[in-house]
Structure formats: C-alpha cells, structure tokens
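User: Design a sequence. Structure:
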C-alpha cells in the first residue's frame, strides 16, 4: 500500500479544528500513519484513529519543540511532539465553558513567548 494523506476532517463529536493550537484539557481525535516492516524498510499500513485528552505540554528549551502528553481513551499515555500531533489535522470537542479554554490558550501562548524571548537572549550572548 502506498503512503496516503489522511482524509479525516473531524466528525460529529470532534468537529473543531485545533491544528496548531491545542491546549491542556482539550479532548482530541486525530489519525496517525502506521507502518509495518523494519525501521530501514517501512511499509505504510494505514491510519490509526487516536482519541484522548491533552493532560500536559512543555516546550523544549533549546529548539522550542512543543511536546504534548495525552491520556488515551483506550488507556495509557502518549507523548508526542507538536509537529507530529498536528501533522494530519487535530480536532477537538467543544468545551462546556469555552472561556476556560481561552484562558488556557492565553497561558500557553505566554509561556511560548517567554521561551522564545529567552532563546533570543541566549543566541545574542553565544
């Protein structure tokens, strides 16, 4: 099977596209590619639907890489880089109180701004 692009674009339950702006507390669903075979010779096997709640996020100090921790509906936890989480589109449920989500987004963005400013300072003095 040749590699394909995910065709998932939300559903009745997970209808809000939050690609690029997920926050702690979001209940999310996305598709991720799965492969079979060896690491050196992988073969595309299809897509796996992943559903869970974002329970943590952090920024990498050096390269500003955003990492998310999800508690999966099927059980267990999953840690993913933001670029991988957002790769095929990320969809979320509506919060009961969207103002709480807005507050979480503002807090997340302020942490990102601080991390970028600190990185610029480090670059100036290297």
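Assistant: Done.
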């Amino acid at each position: 099977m040749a590699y394909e692009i995910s065709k998932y674009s939300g559903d009745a339950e997970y209808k809000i596209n939050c690609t690029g702006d997920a926050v702690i507390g979001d209940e999310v669903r996305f598709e991720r590619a799965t492969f079979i075979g060896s690491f050196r010779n992988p073969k595309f096997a299809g897509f796996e639907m992943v559903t869970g709640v974002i329970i943590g996020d952090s920024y990498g100090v050096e390269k500003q890489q955003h990492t998310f921790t999800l508690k999966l509906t099927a059980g267990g936890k999953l840690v993913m880089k933001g670029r991988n989480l957002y790769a095929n589109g990320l969809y979320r449920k509506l919060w009961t109180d969207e103002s709480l989500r807005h507050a979480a987004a503002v807090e997340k963005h302020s942490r990102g701004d601080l991390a970028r400013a600190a990185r610029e300072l480090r670059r100036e003095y290297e």
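The chain has a mean pLDDT of 90. Helices lie at 82-85, 98-124.
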